[in-house]
Amino acid sequence: MKAITKLTAMTLLGFAGATSANAYYEDEKNTKFYIGSDIARINGSVEGKKIFINKEQDLTNWGFTTGYEFNSIFSLDAYYSEDDKFDIKNYGVRFNARPVIYGPIYAVGTLGLNQTEFVAKGAPLTDNPFAPDFDRNGNANYEQHKDKTGIDSLYAVGLGYRYQQVDFEVKYHKFGDFDGVMGSLMVRF
Questions:
Q1: CB 35 within 8 A of CB 65
Q2: Is the pLDDT reported for residue 117 higher than 90?
Q3: 140 forms bridges with which residues in the sheet?
Q4: What do you get for the CA distance between the two ends of the chain, in Å?
Q5: CA–CA gap between residue 60 and residue 95 (Å, rounded)
Q6: Over the stretch 40-79, which tens digit does the pLDDT of each residue have?
Q7: Which of 86, 27, 24 is nearest to 60 (CA)?
Q8: Domain span at residue 79?
Q9: If we measure between CA atoms, which residue out of 138, 118, 133, 135 comes closest to residue 49?
């Protein structure tokens, strides 16, 4: 599986370098910077951690992206996303290749680095099984476990559609022991 992943990434990057057509609308006002919002449905586990021991989790992450396009194909961005259910935060950097397939439709290949950080419930600090998560002073009624995974590689492949200064992308992405589907909406300014 790792060989297929590497081959897919190299193929997309090679295709991006060889592609001469592009769906990029050149505009004197375009600064090549972009911002965007992301939503992802991911599942996976972080083995050996107190809250995820061999248990699969389904999560919905919301986040934002900011980046810079070097040319009509290559870009670099930084991102941040979080899931409130388990207080999971992901952040990192991504290198993207977006070669045109036909007209405004393009392929997306992404390689990057991801850091996952989480805080989650542990053992209760009270004997009352019906106690709320927090008391009226805002103090937690359970142990909180804060942890970070190591820095993991990230990759994604998918399709995008570009209309003037706006891009919409749908991608399959994987980082650490998590994988899923992600949608992005980006605006260049």
A1: yes
A2: no
A3: 134
A4: 38
A5: 23
A6: 988 876 554 544 434 556 778 899 999 999 998 999 999 9
A7: 86
A8: 2-17+37-119+148-188
A9: 118
Number of domains into which the chain is organized: 1
Q: State pLDDT tens for residues 71-88.
A: 989 999 999 998 866 677
> Could you tell me the pTM of the whole model?
0.69
Q: Would residue 127 count as lying in a domain?
A: no
Domain-embedded: residue 164: yes
CA angle 176, 182, 184 (to 5 degrees): 130
Residue 162 forms part of a structural domain: yes
Report how far apart, in Å, the C-alpha atoms of 135 and of each of 7, 86, 130, 131 are.
52, 19, 12, 8
User: Which CATH number goes with the domain that contains 184?
Assistant: 2.40.160.20
Whether 114 is in a domain gets the answer: yes
